[in-house]
Amino acid sequence: MKALNDIQNFYFIGIGGIGMSALAFYFQSEGKNVAGYDKTPSDVTTKLQEAGVAVHFQDKGDAIDETFADKENTLVIYTPAMPNTMGELVRFRESGHILKKRAEVLGLIANQSFSLAVAGTHGKTTTSSILGHLLAATGAPVTAFVGGITNNYNGNLIQNGNDITVVEADEFDRSFLQLTPDILCITSMDADHLDIYEDEADLVATFQEFGSLVAPEKRFIRNGLPLAGNTVGIEDDATYSAENVRIVDGAYHFDFKYPEGVLKDLKFTLPGRHNLFNATTALSMAVAYGTPVAKLPEALASYAGVNRRFTYRYQSQDKVLIDDYAHHPTEIAAVYQSIKEMYPGEEVLAIFQPHLFSRTKDFMADFATELSRFDEVALLDIYPARELPIEGITSQALLDKMTLSNKEIVTKNRLPEIVTASNKKIIVMMGAGDIGVEILKVSKILKSEG
Question: Which domain CATH number covers 197?
């Protein structure tokens, strides 16, 4: 295969995905010819089209566009979520085109620059977006590929040059082993993707293999994880840590301790100690890269978050509607802790859409435990994504395991009624499926009535 810089045409199968679209935006900005397919239109595909990317929504397996017929000058990039029987995928394979998974291409880009990789079962997107912002805001020539829409940049790609690359190192299908980073972090290693890994031990072993890609002094590891390196934590005797943490006017203020000194009274506006940990990790990696530490406080204070990570969709005296991507028990626990820290004493209604039958099966008891901490819970049906149903694994089965009494199964069309009628001041809607679309409908109704 030619070097990426020498390839002119890039065709994406599943172009609307958050990771795929960041690559599409990147190649488009590099002056390449970019087009692709996705199953359904979305805000992301609209933005791609506005940027000049040709996007279509019908599988054209019977023909390859003339522009992309040149096998020597075309790279086809596909998402592993796409079925192998998909027409365009089959046609490109049969025609002898070079096909690569998204993670492979991300690795090719990252590996041709100084790269910083953010790994972990939770916290990748927030940490990588903070890191990308810290570097860009302090003048570093960085490109950051982010797994969410950053509020500072209104997109999933941060571009301020090509000398440095920040990437999310995704453990799904072990794709992060494609990377050869210069600096890496591991934010967490909780069991997940047990449809890919044999068990939690297999997952941990793979994270350890990833960590071994760099020397220990270039690793930043959550304090307590079984891997040597610089430890990161909050007030827990880590090598890099947030100390003297307090909340002032709804924002965290803290001191950042690192081996060479202490940065005093930093401000960070995202709620939740898990997000404060993510910020501390990003600060640690920025210092290790060589960012002038005196510039970091202003850069961190200007960070505005990522869409669907504890995003406020509606706020009034009587009601607060929060949107979060949480789809794992640990993430739900973090959302609960954030709400209780910001709104002590307030009752909370949680609306949750489970994501994947396999994940619901693997963590049924843990989901039930964490959801039962809320005062009221409404469950949507499981969002299947790439999966077929598993017998006995339903939202009703999860509901039956929950110990709180105020709980029910709901349909999407009832969500506006449930939210507007609720006597709970704090309402949080969580999940990685299309609940993100539903909350926008609900917030629009609240705003029109408010």
Answer: 3.40.1190.10
Strands 376-379 and 407-409: parallel
Question: Is residue 90 situated within a structural domain?
Answer: yes
Write down the mean pLDDT value for the chain.
93
CATH value at residue 364: 3.90.190.20
* Nearest of 122, 135, 39 to residue 82 by alpha carbon: 39
> What 3-state DSSP class applies to 221?
strand
Q: What is the extent of the structural domain holding 433?
A: 311-449
Rounded distance between C-alpha atoms, residue 238 and residue 335, angstroms: 24
CA distances from 156 to 19, 70, 105, 316 (A): 8, 29, 16, 29
Interval 191-197 mean pLDDT = 58
Residue pLDDT, tens place only, 88-143: 999 999 999 999 999 899 999 998 999 999 999 889 999 999 999 999 999 999 99
For residue 131, give Cα distances in angstroms to 7, 85, 127, 163, 401: 29, 38, 6, 15, 39
Q: Based on the fold, state whether residues 66 and 136 are members of the same structural domain.
A: no
Write out pLDDT tens, residues 13-32.
999 999 999 999 999 999 99
Does 275 reside within a domain? Answer: yes
* Domain's final residue, options 270, 301, 332: 301
pTM of the model: 0.86
